[in-house]
Transglutaminase (Blastomonas fulva), 273 residues
Amino acid sequence: MRLHIVHRTSYHYDTPMPYALQRLRMIPKDSAGQRVVRWKTEVEGGSKQVEYIDHHNNHVELFSFNPDQHEVVIHCEGEVETSDHAGMVGQHGGSAPLWYFRRETPFTRPGPAIRKLLRQFDDPGAANGDAPRLHALSELVRGAVAYEVGQTGATTTAEEALNAGHGVCQDHAHLFITLARLLGYPARYVSGYLLMNDRTEQDAGHGWAEVHAQGLGWVGFDISNGYSPDERYVRVATGLDYREAAPIGGITFGKGNEAMTVTLTVQQVQAQQ
């Protein structure tokens, strides 16, 4: 399957912004199940300072905003060829060792509610296979946190989402990662795109989790949808949590208010006859 993606992020400032530096992780990875056919990133009102591959094998670009801008637009567009590998990403790579992915972060720090939930887990055990065990863990998370937009935010932790009982894909992934690490698995967050069945226009990208299992390597789990990523998914960036895999992050200097608008389309490119 070939997917065409257009992702546009606009920042508007009510007073001119004297300086801003943004880190972009918006270039998809060539990996098992996907090949980047073409991709370009353009920034209106800014200029690229440097680009590099980080310790997660993410392609990172640093852009500085031109001084005294009222509006800056980040525009990404490209095509990615995908295939269904049942969520299998392959063996570990990159400079970060596997033990690094067992570390907790502020987003994934287990509290009393998470530890209580794990005690309620009807664990089939690793002896019966890591994949069935992790799918059962995914169902545990889905049963504990209902998918509901607008009830959590970018800074909501896994413990807070569980206590609230609702959240979105970011919250599901953080909670699943936290529980997987408590069971001894290396786990990480994935940011990317998903081809929807009912629409091409979306409000934001998608997030899911990957766990490293012995003999399998990294395996993806989309907790919000209840299955492993297939040819409808495009992996862009990975990290210990959303903060390390976020498409855009950075610093700004100025006293004005910022308004952000995101438009995203993901659609299948039809084969030419």
Remarks:
- The first strand starts at residue 2 and ends at 17.
- The helical segments are 112-119, 130-144, 158-164, 169-182, 242-245.
- The first helix runs from residue 112 to 119.
- The chain has a mean pLDDT of 93.
